[in-house]
UniProtKB/TrEMBL annotation:
SMART domains: HTH_ARAC (SM00342). Keywords: DNA-binding, Transcription, Transcription regulation. Residues 224-322 form the HTH araC/xylS-type domain. It comes from the Bacteria. SUPFAM superfamilies: Homeodomain-like, RmlC-like cupins. Pfam families: Cupin_6, HTH_18. InterPro entries: AraC_lig, AraC_XylS_family_regulators, Homeodomain-like_sf, HTH_AraC, RmlC-like_jellyroll, RmlC_Cupin_sf. This is AraC family transcriptional regulator. It comes from Streptomyces flavochromogenes. The keyword Transcription regulation applies.
Amino acid sequence: MAIVGTDRHAQQPEQEEQDDLLSELLKPLRLTGVFDSRWHVRAPWAIEGDAERSCAVLHYVVEGDCWITTEAEAPVELHAGDLVVFPTGTAHRLSDRPERQGLPLKAVLPERQPGTSGEIVIEGSGPESRLLCAGLHYDASAATGLYTSLPWALVLDGPQVDREPLLRDTLRLLAAPDRPVGPGDRLITLRAFEMALVLALRPLLRELAGNPTSLPLLRHPGISRAVVMMATRFADPWTIDALAREVGMSRSAFTASFRDLVGESPARYLAARRMQEAGRLLTETSLPQSAVPARVGYQSAVGFHLAFRKWFGVTPGEYRAGADRAA
């Protein structure tokens, strides 16, 4: 008993650090648009989906079974109640058999504009399957190297989904053929899928935290701490030397390990976080534009202006004006 208690106490700071890191990974995931579709298919059937840029893809099996295949990966079988998420929209095929070749998705759903819905019906003589599928478009500037390093597909089986009642109920509502419609439906659907994505990624990322080969960053205390610091304290006047000292590493070891584990340099990761926050302040608050640079770690307004234009392709003023027009 005493040993178990001691181990739990010793692991608590590590678990808290992992929780902080997972929170920072999920925080930027704000969807900009969703296309969803309901599939009613009978074997034989197969549909080939292209790679989706700046788009996560979600498939929820309402009834029946299906297979997911992609290049250089083993096929994955899904059953009723299972959920699969493709964080970065990897090209894949859904089918009743893993070896079956199929129709291109664009042939059966030629128009997939965010904010709209569709339906696929394939009549066959074999077993029936029903699926809810969605393309979840997100702001590419918020997709850090940490997010894009996630595995090509993440699967929650039926029992795992059932252990997340809010996720389960949200998916069932979204998959219902008589889903309520009315004023504000487009925004409600967007936020419902956004919640489903975050609720799905949370247990999946916790599972990855226990498997260093899947996401090694979660087991590197120095780099994971640096990621959290840059994500939460982006307004601090960080330098690479200061970050390396803070986590007890040499500059060269810190820079090399960060790039290897996160997928980009510390400087670019920090710039991405600062630009993401700057964009949020400009579009979601009434903060004067002149106050934004200091809030995101820039001492010079000119330096911020140049960095912002290089990152977004427009000036801060144009960015805010564009958001106002869209609203």
